[in-house]
Write a structure and sequence with these properties.
4-stranded antiparallel beta sheet, mainly beta, 51% strand, 3-stranded antiparallel beta sheet, Immunoglobulin-like
């Protein structure tokens, strides 16, 4: 995951931009973003009983089709404190790849 570092101070009201890259696959894989802990993953649909927020993202495909980059941007709320920001990538017939970062949010 790019765009967030462990030493970055995140304040409530800040705008966060984060990126994930998933390489390989024919077709290329898909990346989904969410805040919180996902309870189950079934095919391409998330089944969520924990009130998680799934985030809209922008996907950019490498011109040589070697990777897909997914970028998410959102406004941080105080209620996001201690929630994981996670990108989950899936290339068909391969294990899922997951990158996660705990949001340490301070209030203004």
């Amino acid at each position: 995951m790019h765009g967030i570092t462990y030493d970055k101070v995140i304040k409530s009201g800040d705008r966060i931009i984060a990126e994930c890259i998933l390489t390989g696959g024919n077709p290329l894989g898909k990346i989904l973003w969410y805040k919180g802990i996902v309870q189950k993953f079934f095919e391409e649909d998330f089944i969520d009983n924990l009130g998680n927020e799934f985030l809209q993202s922008e996907s950019i495909i490498d011109p040589n089709e070697k990777y897909v980059l997914s970028r998410v941007e959102f406004l941080v709320l105080s209620s996001d404190n201690n929630l994981p920001l996670t990108c989950k990538g899936q290339v068909e017939n391969f294990p899922q790849k997951i990158a996660s970062f705990i949001l340490n949010v301070t209030c203004k």
